[in-house]
Specification:
- This is SAM-dependent methyltransferase.
- By secondary structure, the protein is of the alpha/beta class.
- It has a domain of about 190 residues: Rossmann fold, CATH 3.40.50.
- It has 10 helices and 9 strands.
- The strands form 2 sheets. It has a 7-stranded mixed β-sheet with strand order 3-2-1-4-5-9-6, with helices on both faces.
């Protein structure tokens, strides 16, 4: 089986210096990644993630969701190919089975591509597949995720749940208004990846294309809270959702416009608070 790279669903237009990529990965790890903790907790609780779980996490980022699954006793494989810097941060957080130290965990594996070992006597199939990176903001993200799932699901057992995540309705996601700044700027640069509104059936469409059977869904409130505007800018830039706008104009201009868009969510104490709702779909492997 040819190794399959996991491509990140968020756009990264233009060339970014290696040092900036490292800083942005750190901003993601320290500021932005925690915003989806309520989602991770809700999914893990609903599916009873624990010692009997073998988890395959697609687009595992800097590993916070993996840490939470490991704390429940799950065996896990995290796949992150879009950002070597995020993968390096995950390796700092989690003891790896390829390490030979006394404290290495044999049931944790981090890699930059899908495993090539098919389920068999020595390699039990995965019992859960997650794709926690939300879709529904970038043109083409549903097609990419469907293709990735089609390659990943043969590694899991029949009937195993596959969790997909998307942005909720625009009227329930305050961040949507801020991201319109990126969409407005990106319109100046024809032919780049475009931001789009989330669609009601995005997740079901992906499941159908990947040959999966929908089997339940839920919504989780995941507010984006920041210590100040500067922290909010770093966090939002770390997602990659503003990259197209930066490529179409320049980063100082995008930061200026984004800071202005954050004003309605600025509290008297200087913190920034944006209510958001994310939707998850549980689909089953036939």
């Amino acid at each position: 089986m040819t190794p399959v790279l996991v491509r990140q669903h968020l756009p990264h237009a233009g060339q970014t210096p290696r040092a900036d990529l490292g800083a942005r990965a750190r901003d993601w790890s320290e500021i932005q990644e925690r915003m989806l903790v309520p989602l991770y907790e809700a999914v893990y609780e609903r599916l009873g993630v624990g010692p009997g779980t073998r988890l395959l996490s697609l687009g595992s980022g800097s590993g916070l969701a993996l840490v939470m699954a490991a704390s429940r006793g799950a065996a896990l494989t995290g796949v992150e190919s879009s950002s070597p810097a995020r993968l390096a941060l995950a390796r700092e957080r989690l003891p790896l089975r390829e390490d030979r130290g006394a404290h290495a965990r044999a049931d944790i594996r981090l890699t930059d591509r899908l495993p090539t070992d098919r389920p068999g006597a020595r390699t039990p199939p995965y019992t859960l597949v997650t794709a926690f990176e939300p879709i529904g903001r970038v043109a083409g993200d549903t097609e990419e995720l469907a293709a990735l799932l089609a390659a990943a699901t043969p590694l899991a057992r029949r009937g195993a749940p596959v969790v997909l995540v998307g942005w909720g309705p625009p009227e329930r996601c305050a961040t949507t208004a801020v991201l319109r700044v990126a969409a407005k700027a990106a319109d100046q640069d024809r032919g780049t990846i475009r931001l789009r509104p989330a669609l009601r059936d995005d997740l079901e469409d992906v499941a159908r294309r990947a040959g999966l059977r929908p089997d339940g869904s839920g919504r989780v409130a995941c507010p984006f809270g920041y210590a100040d505007v500067d922290s909010a800018l770093k966090g939002l830039l770390s997602t990659g959702l503003l990259d197209t706008a930066v490529a179409a104009t320049d980063q100082p201009q995008v930061e200026k416009e984004t800071a202005e868009a954050l004003h309605p969510y600025l509290r008297p104490d200087g913190t920034v608070w944006m209510p958001n709702v994310f939707r998850y779909l549980i689909a089953r492997i036939p």
